[in-house]
Structure formats: structure tokens, C-alpha cells
Design goal:
The protein is an alpha+beta fold. The chain has a single domain, classed as 3-Layer(aba) Sandwich (Aminopeptidase). The protein has helices at 16-26, 33-40, 111-125, 141-149; strands at 6-10, 45-52, 63-73, 93-102, 129-137, 153-164, 167-177. The longest helix has 15 residues, at 111-125. The protein is globular and about 55 Å long. The structure holds acetyl coenzyme *A. Acetyl coenzyme *A (ACO) binds next to strand 4, helix 3, strand 5 and helix 4.
Length: 181
């Protein structure tokens, strides 16, 4: 088989269609087209894409993985107590990971790990940022293993956080502190 040549780059408007398709394929939750527009136009969202430069026939710049995240104010995130939120520093921020995904044929190659590394590096570079955090559905074993392996701390279980096809599922809240958060 061939050797993938994985590269990381920003998400751009031409990624819209593939980004929407992969989200629909791998997530049980539907996202609004507004969300995808915000991602590709970098409106309040930061994101990174993974591509395989070794793919032939015009696919060498096509998304095979992505991570999307939003900057949140620590005081509004509702988890200030767990982030040692300091009221004397009202401008403290957090990076909230919205979606992370890798297409099936490219899994277990360390791509998700690299995408999360990019987010942590970015968050660390923002002086006001205190942590990266995210929610994951309680049955998602691969993702939970990934976050634990990357030293995220599981700080909460939220009962019935997700509603999918009329059924409630719990979520875990994972946090990775940066800048002494
Ligand atoms: N079973 C157990 N552990 C796993 C698995 C698995 N199937 N897949 C990944 N891991 C863990 C391992 O600890 C692995 O480290 P190791 O290889 O040293 O053992 C670590 O994660 C890193 O694995 P990567 O190869 O970087 O992960 P991958 O690129 O395969 O992507 C992901 C993992 C994103 C969870 C992928 O399976 C996926 O896209 N799943 C569907 C979408 C999804 O669940 N996204 C996350 C939802 S949460 C959110 O979006 C905020």
C-alpha cells in the first residue's frame, strides 16, 4: 500500500462541501449550515485541516481530518469554578473544541493527536487563555482514550447532555489547562 504524506493547514472556503460531508458521515448530531460557513470563513472559529499530499487525481488537498474550536470567555463558560476563574482578570478565555474527526481509512495514524496538539499550541499562545475544553458522549471510547492519553482531565459527567433521536446520553467534560490555568 502507499505511504500517506499527512500535512496540516488552515480550513478554507473550498473545503466547505467535504467538511459538511465528513461531519454528516461521522457525527450522530446534525450541524447547521451556519456552523460550516463560520468555520470556512473563520468567523469566531479557529480550525485546522489534515490532508494527504500523496493522494492522486486532485485529492491531494482534500480534507481527511479536521478540528474546529471557538474562543469562549471563562466567566461565561459556566465552568469557572473548575478553571480557577479569577474575577480580578475578567478577560480570561478558554478554547472550546466543537468538532474533531478523522475519516475512517486514516484512523490510528496519530492524526487526531496532531490536530489536538495544534489546538493546544494555539491556546498556549493566547496570553488570556487558561484552558482547552470539550464535551464527548459517554460511549465514545476511541475519543475518550485519545483525550486521556493526551493528559486531558475528565472533570465532570453531565447527565443527559446530548439528545439524539429522542434519546438522552451523558457527556464527559474534559479539560487541558494552559498558561497556568
Ligand atoms: N480505540 C481505543 N483508543 C483509540 C482508538 C480506538 N479505536 N482510536 C484512537 N484511540 C486513542 C489511542 O489512545 C491513541 O493513541 P495510541 O495510538 O498511542 O494508542 C490515541 O487515541 C490517538 O489516536 P489517533 O490515531 O491520533 O486518533 P485518530 O486519528 O484515529 O482519531 C478520532 C480519533 C478523532 C476519535 C476518530 O476515531 C474519529 O474521527 N471518530 C469519529 C468522530 C469522533 O468521535 N470525534 C470525537 C468526538 S468528541 C468532539 O468532537 C469534541
Amino acid at each position: 500500500s502507499h505511504h500517506p504524506a499527512i500535512c496540516y493547514r488552515p480550513i478554507q472556503p473550498s473545503d466547505l462541501e467535504v467538511l459538511e460531508r465528513i461531519h454528516a458521515e461521522i457525527f450522530p448530531i446534525r450541524y447547521e449550515s451556519e456552523f460550516f460557513q463560520s468555520v470556512v470563513h473563520e468567523r469566531d472559529i479557529v480550525s485546522w485541516a489534515a490532508v494527504d499530499r500523496s493522494r492522486p487525481n486532485g485529492h491531494s488537498d482534500e480534507l481527511i481530518g479536521f478540528v474546529t474550536a471557538r474562543i469562549a470567555m471563562a466567566k461565561e463558560a459556566g465552568i469557572g469554578d473548575l478553571l480557577r476563574y479569577d474575577p480580578s482578570k475578567p478577560d480570561q478565555t478558554l478554547v472550546y473544541i466543537l468538532t474533531l474527526g478523522v475519516v475512517e481509512t486514516y484512523r490510528n495514524l496519530g492524526i487526531a493527536r496532531s490536530l489536538i496538539r495544534q489546538v493546544i499550541k494555539y491556546a498556549s499562545s493566547v496570553p488570556t487563555c487558561r484552558a482547552v475544553y470539550l464535551h464527548v458522549i459517554s460511549y465514545n471510547v476511541p475519543a475518550i482514550h485519545l483525550y486521556k492519553k493526551m493528559s486531558f482531565k475528565c472533570i465532570r459527567r453531565l447527565q443527559g447532555f446530548y439528545l439524539i433521536n429522542g434519546q438522552h446520553y451523558d457527556s464527559f467534560l474534559f479539560v487541558y489547562y494552559v498558561n497556568g490555568g
